[in-house]
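Figure caption, in words: inputs first, then the predicted bound structure.
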Amino acid sequence: MKKLANSKLLEMYRLMVTIRQFEDYLYQLFLQGRVPGTLHQYQGQEAVAVGVCAALNKDDIIFSTHRPVGHAIAKGMQLDPIAAELWGKATGCAGGKSGQMHLTDIEVGMMPSNAIVGANIPIAAGAALGFSLRGEVRVAVSFFGDGAANIGAFHEGINLAAVKNAPVVFVCENNQFAASTHISLATKIENIADRAAGYGIPGVIVDGMDVLEVNQAAQTAVERARSGDGPTLIEAKTYRYKGHSRGDPGKYRDPHELSRWQARDPIPSFREKLLSQGIEEKVLAEIDAGVDESVKAAVQHAESAPEPDPTETYTHVYAQSGSKR
Ligand SMILES: Cc1ncc(C[n+]2csc(CCOP(=O)(O)OP(=O)(O)O)c2C)c(N)n1
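Bound structure (thiamine diphosphate present):
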């Protein structure tokens, strides 16, 4: 297994802190009425997006869901086009047309995120199959929640990918809830990863609060996909700190459950690990301060960016003749 260089570890730390600080700041701004639309937030799950994306190359691609901010940042999207998109502005990654749920940047391999639960699973399988048919050594990753594992597309997508040995990694982020439904009310088995056996592929359970454990499993799965041996289903056990979306205070949850998971928060524990490996506190403090600045700058950019021109309303909504997009 590839040992990670310090520079890589620090970049993983920076990305996790960026996701957390950006999402926390958005939450405050939402409560002040400054963020248009709603938000589906990712706090608590940062180790999953960052651990998996750290095992990928720039030309590998990921498919996200209605909770895409963490995945977008982890795959290398800049904050300005994300923030501007959340504000519906012209400089947003989709020109302000998509809002939070369809973040995209093809250049870094962030495919348009999909708010239909489970829908990205067969799409990722198809994209991966395309890679292998064209002889391209690239990998597709599908991120989805525990709720999506009970959707028909989960079965169809994973089965197709398994039969075709498609180079895809399926990452189920088991954050214990699908909206307000606890997993125990919707899923009879304890581990979603056990379902992999039904498709003849490896199923791996990882601690989704430990970025290095997630990364190790992702490296193995990506290696397997690249060498033509087909997909892996990774189940990361994690927790969603906030309610499902911003209209949901999450009152259906046991507050002790939340504090038990927060005691294992992926960011301070990774920070501790880095310090114990000899990385200096001041290096991490500089990263924290740099992130704080970039988060504030992105929001400032979004708030001051121009509104989309009304004449652009139908651009990219319908295919234009002669256009490949
Ligand atoms: C096919 C479909 N059914 C229902 C919804 C409404 N919905 C949006 S998110 C969500 C919960 C999804 O839970 P999960 O897959 O566990 O992801 P998480 O929100 O926990 O990240 C539901 C039911 C939807 N968007 N698509």
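The beta strands are 61-63, 140-145, 168-174, 177-178, 181-182, 203-207, 232-237.
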